[in-house]
């Protein structure tokens, strides 16, 4: 047996960070992994978090955490101690650095090749900031920690032909979006989307539809010139490089079946242009993927849901979908 064949036969190693301890991350992790053996027979999972907290939250949702960890064959625990005891729904800045430690351990493991992919449960940005650490979000932090000059946030729904929406800009005030767009940045963003759809999602010829920035895609310059001066020239450049990217389309009419059924991804210009549509269509089953990284990272499409934490009413569907996608992406990377 060749070394490549041996590698292909090994279980995929997936890390899961349990996120904000006061939120739903720990219990959703337990719920999702309760079916690990049946759902993901080709994968092994390492859960990063406080072992006592995980057992407590698992018990609250009817999962026998000790049995799940038995023999370490499918699910393993990488214990990281809380900074302070955590109560469901009650934020504590003393746990801000604990949350970052989970993320750092997962990133380091993925960069070292210990993990084939990481899946992140939601965190609370304010807790990290209150702990004295400047933090904008998972996406930006992953880019910084992996020394990646440009990453792309993409949210995706599940289904036979999933809706995927990527963003040209992420967590910016609306007044700063236009200045953040350039021909160069859009070209690089489209290259990243095309590359990752090919190599991580198994799409041999991705088709990307691109929105305009302004109402009616600028109305031939009467409602803004970004489409003429920035977006169209960027599309021409990537088309010349063999990337099938089309537009710019008015965002208010692009999200229709007759357009989307011919698309593998939509690139929206800013956060609240594309994501409200996607979340309306897929919330609870959607996922967040960071494209352009040297590692694979997926996450849920929702926040910490502090009001649901510890109640057993939170739905693990999005986390299950994020794990599904991480496993699939890791398999595609391994064979391709």
From TrEMBL:
PANTHER family: 4-HYDROXYTHREONINE-4-PHOSPHATE DEHYDROGENASE (PTHR30004:SF5)
Compartmental location: Cytoplasm
Protein name: 4-hydroxythreonine-4-phosphate dehydrogenase
An example Gene Ontology molecular-function term: cobalt ion binding
Subunit structure: Homodimer.
Species this protein is from: Paraburkholderia panacisoli
Entry annotated with the keyword Magnesium: yes
InterPro entries referenced in this protein's UniProt entry, alphabetically: PdxA, PdxA_fam
UniProt-annotated binding residues for substrate: 138-139, 279, 288, 297
Cofactor(s) required, per the database record: Zn(2+); Mg(2+); Co(2+)
Amino-acid positions noted as binding a divalent metal cation in the UniProt annotation, renumbered to this chain: 171, 216, 271
EC number of this enzyme: 1.1.1.262
Function noted in UniProt: Catalyzes the NAD(P)-dependent oxidation of 4-(phosphooxy)-L-threonine (HTP) into 2-amino-3-oxo-4-(phosphooxy)butyric acid which spontaneously decarboxylates to form 3-amino-2-oxopropyl phosphate (AHAP).
GO CC aspect terms: cytoplasm
Keywords associated with the record: Cobalt, Cytoplasm, Magnesium, Metal-binding, NAD, NADP, Oxidoreductase, Pyridoxine biosynthesis, Zinc
Pathway named in the protein's UniProt entry: Cofactor biosynthesis; pyridoxine 5'-phosphate biosynthesis; pyridoxine 5'-phosphate from D-erythrose 4-phosphate: step 4/5
NCBIfam families hit by this protein: pdxA, PRK01909.1
């Amino acid at each position: 047996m060749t070394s490549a064949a041996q590698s292909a036969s090994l279980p995929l190693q997936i890390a899961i960070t349990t996120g904000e301890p006061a939120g739903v991350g720990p219990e959703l992790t337990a719920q999702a992994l309760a079916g690990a053996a049946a759902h993901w027979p080709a994968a092994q999972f390492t859960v990063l978090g406080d072992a006592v907290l995980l057992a407590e939250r698992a018990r609250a949702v009817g999962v026998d955490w000790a049995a799940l960890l038995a023999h370490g064959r499918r699910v393993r625990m990488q214990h990281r101690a809380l900074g302070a005891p955590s109560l469901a729904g009650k934020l504590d800045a003393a746990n801000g650095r604990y949350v970052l430690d989970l993320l750092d351990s997962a990133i380091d493991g993925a960069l070292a090749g210990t993990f084939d992919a990481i899946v992140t449960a939601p965190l609370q940005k304010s807790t990290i900031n209150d702990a004295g650490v400047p933090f904008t979000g998972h996406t930006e932090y992953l880019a910084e920690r992996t020394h990646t000059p440009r990453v792309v946030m993409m949210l995706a729904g599940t289904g036979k032909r999933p809706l995927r929406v990527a963003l040209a800009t992420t967590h910016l005030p609306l007044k700063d979006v236009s200045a953040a767009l350039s021909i160069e940045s859009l070209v690089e963003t489209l290259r990243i989307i095309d590359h990752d759809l090919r190599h991580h999602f198994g799409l041999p010829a991705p088709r990307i539809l691109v929105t305009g920035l302004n109402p009616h895609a600028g109305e031939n310059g009467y409602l803004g010139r970004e489409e003429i001066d920035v977006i169209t020239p960027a599309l021409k450049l990537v088309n010349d490089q063999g990337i099938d990217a089309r537009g710019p389309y008015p965002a208010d009419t692009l999200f229709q079946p007759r357009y989307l059924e011919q698309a593998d991804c939509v690139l929206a210009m800013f956060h609240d242009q594309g994501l409200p549509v996607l979340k309306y269509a897929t919330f609870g089953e959607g996922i967040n993927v960071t494209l352009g990284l040297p590692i694979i990272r997926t996450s849920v499409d929702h926040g910490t849901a502090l009001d649901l934490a510890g109640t057993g009413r939170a739905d693990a569907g999005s986390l299950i979908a994020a794990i599904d996608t991480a496993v699939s992406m890791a398999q595609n990377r391994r064979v391709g």
